Amino acid sequence: MFSEEETGLTEENLHLLIEAFAIHELGNIPEQYAEYLTTLAENFAMGLVTNIWAPKKSG
After folding, report:
1. Of 5, 11, 44, 58, which has the most beta carbons under 10 Å away?
2. C-beta separation of 8 from 17 below 8 A
């Protein structure tokens, strides 16, 4: 996979980021997350990032 030196992320944080990308690919935002994003949008400019890539799970 990617090293901490390459990414600047700890192994744990890289794993969490990859899992977030994988969940994103399901095409569904859970209601509580949507509510939180709506709350954030009241105070911050929001954007959309597309074409996110994560490695396939092995095994």
Report:
1. 11
2. no
Q: How many domains does the chain have?
A: 1
In a domain, 46, yes or no: no
Cβ–Cβ under 8 Å, residues 52 and 21: yes
Q: By C-alpha distance, which of 25, 24, 2, 26 is closest to 13?
A: 2
Write out pLDDT tens, residues 6-59. Answer: 878 888 888 888 887 777 777 777 889 889 989 999 999 988 877 767 677 655
pLDDT digits (tens, 9 = 90+) for 14-26: 888 888 777 777 7
Rounded to two decimals, what is the model's pTM? 0.46
HSE-CB at 53 with a 13 A cutoff on CA atoms is: 3
